[in-house]
Structure formats: structure tokens, C-alpha cells
Amino acid sequence: MLHFFPEESQDLQLLDRYPEIKAVFIRFNTPLPSSASEERLFSFATMTNLPKSHKLSDSMFKKRVVLKCNLNYYKK
Predict the structure, then answer these.
(1) Is residue 52 helix, strand or coil?
(2) Distance (Å, rounded) from C-alpha 49 to C-alpha 56?
(3) Measured between alpha carbons, how far is 50 from 46 in angstroms, rounded to an integer?
(4) Among 29, 24, 58, 19, which Cα is nearest to 41's?
(5) Sign of the C-alpha dihedral, residues 12, 16, 20, 26?
(6) HSE value, Cβ hemisphere, 13 Å, CA-based, for 9
(7) I need a surface site. Which of 5, 32, 68, 70 has the fewest CB within 10 A?
(8) What is the pLDDT of residues 10-19, one digit of tens each?
(9) pLDDT at residue number 20
């Protein structure tokens, strides 16, 4: 890191000289596919498959997902 930060170049090819930093860069700067986060949300929020779920507003849906997350967190 002491050699990486003083580098003046901001070209991504610079990462080839620093494999450890390149691995961290790829791990944390790779975006999710566009639908992955929504699919994860809906698979986690299984209560959306209920017959009454078509009446949920956006804010109520968010609240139910947060409550379910918190419930699962405290169960562990």
C-alpha cells in the first residue's frame, strides 16, 4: 500500500502490478447484476406471495421486510 498510493497514474492497468490490491478492488467494486438485488429482496420477503400482498404500498412492504430481517437477526 505504501507503494500503491503515491502512484500518480489512475489507470486500471496499474492494478496489475499490485495483485493483492487488485483482488480487493475486484471484490468490492464489482456491481451486482441489475436484477440480483431485487430477486434477493423478494426471495427474502416470502410474505409477498400471500393473497393480500397485492394491496401493499411501497412503504408498508419496506417496513415488513425490515421487520422480518430484524426477526431473523434476533433469532440467531
Answers:
(1) helix
(2) 11
(3) 8
(4) 58
(5) positive
(6) 9
(7) 5
(8) 888 888 888 9
(9) 92
